[in-house]
Write a structure and sequence with these properties.
single chain; alpha/beta; Arc Repressor Mutant, subunit A; Rossmann fold; 2 domains; 7-stranded parallel beta sheet; 3-stranded antiparallel beta sheet; globular; disordered C terminus
Length: 275
Amino acid sequence: MKSQKIHRQKAIIDLLQEHGKVETALLSRDLGVTEMTIRRDIEQLEKEGVLYRVYGGAVPTSGRSFEPPFSIRLTQKTESKTAIATQAARLVPRGANVALDFGTKTYFVAKELRKHPGALIAPTGLHAARELAKNPAIRILMPGGHLKPNELSIYGSDAEDFFRSHRWDVSLVSIAGIDTDQGLTDYNRSDAKLKASLIHNSDCVVILAEERYLGAVSFAPVGSLEKVHIVVTDAHPDHKSLTDFHKRGINIISTQNPPHEGDGFAGAEPDRDTD
């Protein structure tokens, strides 16, 4: 069954991250399937860029550029991601022009934005577009570009030009690292360049970041913190990185201490001047 396959591949990825290598025979024993099944899983994960096959097993791709596939990420930390998405969607005023990044957190944001009739939303992922299309009152503007078949996300210069040539009321962006010194970073250059284009021409940049990404630095630079207005996270408000971000004039919304209903977009704007 598909769910069993996803569960197996998630287990393989978790073990890779923990041990730095996995062995086919041990995976077969621990997961209760044949070695042939494990080899097929490893072969698929290699095609998705998650790992490299080696004799007798597999090793992960380089650490800072390592990102599990969408189907696996969608099953991880769903409660935290849903909470972040709920708070992020509340920042979007009715009728806004919204640039929506690709990722599992923004997929959950798309589910929330279905409640925003009249909004014009430009998603960079087909998963989010499909969710938004469930409400015909939402206007969906699809960028052109290349499509990553395993992720169903759009990338490339055409997509980047599209986002840079439009003005956005809000950009909702998911990243792999946000650090006081290194700014925003992501797993690979193509995604990082697209995220930078979403940020470039936006009146309000909202970064969605789980606690593990705070203070982290990934492979490809996206941009500086000066472009960021709000960070929505599941970390405690007293987290050191959040304190540092707030000193930089970035407003913080924590799912552990969310704003009261009705605070809305205006109440979430940063306390500093912007360009």
